Recover the amino acids of this structure.
């Protein structure tokens, strides 16, 4: 095959990838600000500047597009939560909380729909949510040096994540506390969960290493 034909094929693939990403971005914007039933294929196609037929060509149906959008959003969230290996685990956790709450705040309607039943009950959507939770829990345990601590640590991380989701839903509905307060609350709760798991595993050193930093983040004196 000539280099000219290869270049043309590469440009075609790149164009398809870019168009696919554009449709996902437009879908995320609309599904994040409107109820699912109020988002039409026509609106998404118009927002992306393509025909409705092309959108169906890529995704097949509105539900399939929604599932793809949820998967895309989950990937974007995990990128935002990716830990910095140069930072202590507790510091990464707080930074991740700020990123998480900022992410869900910008997509409040979509988050509430997902977490309060609705389309979150879709098997493919639920599988994406569960996979995302597993990645976040694993990152937390690695940061706390509890990734080898066994089932109790995993359960503690998942229980904490459940509390964050429940607290985020309440916060999005009420907006009666500042985000910084919520970050402080969730940070302290995370430490308590992980410390309990560490004590059960018989090794608290990884979690206790972060105690002075946690106290500084919460602006309270560390315990003696």
């Amino acid at each position: 095959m000539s280099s000219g034909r290869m270049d043309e094929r590469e440009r075609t693939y790149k164009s398809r990838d870019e168009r696919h990403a554009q449709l996902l971005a437009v879908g995320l914007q609309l599904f994040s600000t409107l109820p699912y039933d109020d988002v039409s294929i026509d609106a998404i196609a118009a927002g992306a500047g393509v025909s409705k037929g092309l959108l169906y060509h890529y995704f097949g149906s509105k539900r399939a597009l929604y599932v793809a959008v949820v998967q895309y959003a989950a990937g974007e969230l995990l990128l935002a939560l990716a830990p910095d290996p140069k930072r202590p685990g507790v510091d990464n956790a707080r930074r991740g909380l700020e990123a998480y709450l900022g992410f869900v705040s910008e997509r409040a309607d979509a988050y509430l729909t997902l977490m309060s039943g609705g389309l979150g009950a879709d098997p493919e959507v639920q599988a994406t949510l569960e996979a995302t939770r597993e990645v976040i829990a694993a990152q937390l345990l690695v940061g706390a040096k509890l990734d080898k601590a066994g089932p109790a640590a995993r359960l503690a991380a998942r229980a904490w994540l459940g509390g964050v989701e429940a607290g985020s839903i309440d916060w999005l509905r009420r907006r009666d506390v500042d985000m910084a307060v919520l970050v402080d609350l969730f940070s302290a709760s995370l430490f308590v969960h992980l410390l309990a798991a560490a004590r059960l595993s018989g090794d608290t050193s990884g979690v206790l290493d972060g105690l002075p930093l946690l106290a500084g983040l919460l602006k309270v004196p560390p315990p003696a």
